[in-house]
Amino acid sequence: MCRWLGYSGDPIRPEELLYQPARSLIEQSKSHAPDVAIANGDGYGLGWYGTGERPGLFRSASPAWGDRNLREISAQLRSPLFLAHVRAATGTPVQQTNCHPFRHDDWMFVHNGFIDGFDRVRRELVLAVDPALFLGIEGSTDSELMFHLALTFGLAQDPLGGLERMAGFVEAVGRRAGVAHPLQMTVGVSDGVRLYAARYASGPEANTLFVSSSVRDVRLLYPENERFQHFSDEARVVVSEPLVDLPGLWREIPPGTAVVVQPGDDLEVPFRPQAP
Questions:
Q1: 35: containing domain
Q2: Do the domain assignments include residue 275?
Q3: What's the pTM value of the predicted model, to 2 decimals?
Q4: Is there a catalytic annotation at residue 2?
Q5: Choosing from 2, 25, 201, 253, which is the catalytic residue?
Q6: Torsion-angle region of residue 105: left (phi > 0), alpha (psi -120 to 50) or beta?
């Protein structure tokens, strides 16, 4: 099981979430879930929005916990919106091009989960990608293919709709191939203004996803904690697993739900796969 996080708010250094919390993403990468035999050591990535025309990417196939370059860069840059990911491979090679986030123009994408029976459905899924987008696929993961299918089905114009059409298409192809539960996913995607996240599974069990509570409410709960004085009222963090164990800080996103973290009020809506 991979793990990822997304941050949106006033600019901060990514190390504040990657390294400093008790259960930071780097600490999580060293451990594994109860039903997973290996840690998240098959690469990592950090993608951020800064001063460039499109988001920056820093990815490596090495384990996140041992890479001094990641520690250095995450301590130096500041960003109002970034995505980070630690990878546990599910059958595809450990290589840099298979590390998340994936990028296309202003968009970035991270994923935790898998397409079941990927070897049986891969050809049909690949052939559905818009030819204008095909050359953007550099690796061999189901995750990168999901991103390009979502782009094909209108992600840039209708982000949640594009994700729903991607999920519906993957499920339809998988079930035609005899796969009972084709899709397991939590995804994060951003255009640099909003952060979209969705939790969904074709079967009864969906990987976890959490969003941080209102910073104003958290300050009232923990007035002595200086860390929460530092974050802006607009700050939100979306995570596969909580970074610290503080009651009231995290709210679990229900299965079959999408959230939109944006300036002003955030949104929470049902996530329903549909035919493209």
A1: 3-270
A2: no
A3: 0.94
A4: yes
A5: 2
A6: left
